[in-house]
């Protein structure tokens, strides 16, 4: 069974908490909206939002495959991956997606959203992990995180 919004979380203690919250919410009759998910992520996580018409879209499958081998790198950079499938989104979520990210259904889009909630990168093609991590690793907040570790 496919959920309204599919969430993939990589198991670090803070991500596990958010993942559990989103999983439980997604299982209840009242699901979290895309806006709520992004609001909950702000200042805690970077979001890679993968939007596509369906889970069978070739670019959607490619993006997921590219990320599958990079779970450790995603977790190290405090990423959460949110899958937004247009055939399962509410009209409110579609409108929010368009206004917040500029993504127009039915096109595929991969959108990097920083911890500050701002769109940092938007692509109509899958983003190679090296490009994604290169973008993030140049950000001042990520530079501070790396110095602290």
From TrEMBL:
InterPro entries: DUF4174
The entry's keywords: Signal
DUF4174 domain: residues covered: 38-145
Name under which the protein is recorded: DUF4174 domain-containing protein
Keyword Signal: yes
Tagged with keyword Signal: yes
Upper taxonomic lineage: Bacteria, Pseudomonadati, Bacteroidota, Cytophagia, Cytophagales
Region spans: Disordered: 120-149
Species this protein is from: Hymenobacter jeongseonensis
Pfam family, one: DUF4174
